[in-house]
Amino acid sequence: MTVTTPTIKPNEILDSSQVKYLRTKSSLMGTLLVAHAWLVIFSLLFVYTLFPSFIFYLVIITFIAGRQLGLAILMHEGAHGLIANNVKFNNYISQLFCAFPMAVDTYDYRHYHLKHHRHTQTKDDPDLVLSKPFPITKSSFIRKMLRDLSGITGIKQRYQSIKRTFDNDTLKVDGKEISGFKSKTTLRGILLSQFLIFISMSIVGSWWYYFAFWLVPALTIFQFFYRIRNIAEHAVVPNDCDDFNNARTTHASFIERCFVAPYYVNYHLEHHLFMFIPCYKLKHAHNLLVAKKYTDRMEIKKGYIPLLKSILV
Fold first, then answer.
1. How far is Cα 225 from Cα 216, in angstroms, rounded to an integer?
2. This prediction's pTM
């Protein structure tokens, strides 16, 4: 028998005026967050051109990997329609500036991700594979970390992402199915995006900047940060069938927000309770839940170090 996740209506938790405020999104704010991610990336490149060194290079790509995770988070926002009020503009920003740079497709991700929300922590949850193996041993975690940092995970996931796009390659236009259209459009978008990043980074520094400052962190450090993000959201949650306990919020320090928790992604429990809230209002939603004495029901961790300790045996 398929177990379905209980659905708590927002008005059962918060006042209608609070829900109305949280539901309101700003196209300007959403666009500024995307601009912020790219501004940080190119500012870091410019700083490196002034102070080039191998140690500084390692520091720079670590920060860039954090912003690459930020772009993935903002693509997630776009998949929920939360970047902008206008649907076409929302999808355009999400695809061109967030998804394609990370070699993924907003539309494919949306279909996959909304199924995760409908079947959170059940056998029909497509993300269950990310949380089900936990807790794990320290040696297993180290092996996963090494696969991430060596690029093995990154290459494998890029291949699977592009393959999934080609496998789901039918578009309906005026009631007729057109095969091959969507995958070609996505592939062209990804290639164009990578070319624009290559040109932009070449202007800031040199032709090799694209490979050293974009591909290397995307295939290595980003993957490690992405894994920690996935672990934090659902691994070893107390109750798969309780809306307050099948997802987790993790309090994040400034450093953690730079790397593994950009753009309020650490408020994942609130995101599952209120899918309609743009990321920049999730902290406010969290504070409202705390004020209404829901803390005892909520799955909350006090930082990412305690979180990682809790999933190791």
1. 14
2. 0.92
Task: Dump the DSSP string for 87-129.
Answer: HHHHHHHIIIIIIGGGT--HHHHHHHHHHHHHTTTSTT-TTHH
> Which residues make Cβ contacts (< 8 Å) with residue 199, sequence separation at least 6?
none
* Residue 209 CA to its chain's centroid (Å): 24
Cα angle: 28, vertex 33, 38; to 5 degrees: 125
* Cβ neighbours, 10 Å, residue 158: 17
* Distance of alpha carbon 130 from alpha carbon 112, whole angstroms: 14
Distance CA(192)–CA(153), nearest Å, equals 24
Q: b or e along 221-232 (b: 16 or more beta carbons within 10 Å of the residue's beta carbon)?
A: bbbbbbbbbebb
Indicate if the pLDDT at residue 175 is higher than 50. Answer: no
Domain boundaries defined on the chain: 10-170+179-310
Alpha carbon distance 101, 181 (integer Å):
20
